[in-house]
ABC transporter ATP-binding protein (Marinithermofilum abyssi), 271 residues
Amino acid sequence: MLQGIGLSKNFQGKYVIRDVDITVRRGEIIGLIGPNGSGKTTLVRLLSGEETPDSGQVVLEGKPLVAFAAKERAQRVAVLPQEGLSPVAFTVQEVVAMGRYPHESAWSWLERRMDSMVETVLTKTGLTEDRHRPVQHLSGGQRQRVAIAKAMAQEPHCFILDEPTTYMDIAHQIAVLDEIKEWQRERELAVLVVFHDLNLAAHYCDRILAMKDGRIVREGPPDSLLTASLIREVYDVDAAVIRHPVTGVPQVLLSPGETTVSLLSRSRTIG
Ligand SMILES: Nc1ncnc2c1ncn2[C@@H]1O[C@H](COP(=O)(O)OP(=O)(O)OP(=O)(O)O)[C@@H](O)[C@H]1O
């Protein structure tokens, strides 16, 4: 459904994405993991058309992404960027209604605000009570929920989220990811999520792709992929991986002392 074929991207003479193949299929949540600077956001930006690859191409529903007009593309792909929503003066409801833009014809602004899809996502994301508050008065976590609601209102077939739970407390991390998962199942969406939290990735993803130095180095279901050796290979960190006592999915436990040693030696190498 959304495919990157042989993607490479070079910034200032340095390849940050190297010959990456990736397919995000309908009905599937893929997690993209990897250390800082490994190329996750750049890959997301290539897949959403915000960056142009130096080689390779992105194919959406069988057609090159570049062949879609911006509005057609927005009807199919919604992106939650890493930087989230700016603290704008618009209200929560107005921002969520902006997500309807790709589907509107000659509707007026007022009609757009009354759209039932806006009501549905405000309810789903628990934002009904805050609907008349200006976004600039919300906390970082609340703003992130508004950004997710706006993307949901877009009714895409494919949803790309770059670290969606940044700024959220643990209750909202779970609530928002549960909602995204339920919505993905209902609509058979193709979902790609960049995760730093490997334990959340293990719970929510059907498949995980691990990136390092601009390449996808390992790929598989969380159950078989998330091992101590993978974490050592990708992050240079010695971690213990155990089974969650209730769900049985792999969970990563860090050993702080060893993590610090690895990071110090890595920064010495970089410096
Ligand atoms: N527009 C740009 N110009 C120059 N270099 C860039 C640009 N965008 C990204 N890079 C570089 O590309 C590399 C990969 O960055 P990217 O943001 O894709 O990594 P990431 O895996 O998402 O990192 P993080 O986990 O910190 O968000 C980094 O070295 C970064 O400095």
User: Anything to note?
Assistant: Confidence is low (pLDDT under 50) at residues 267-271.
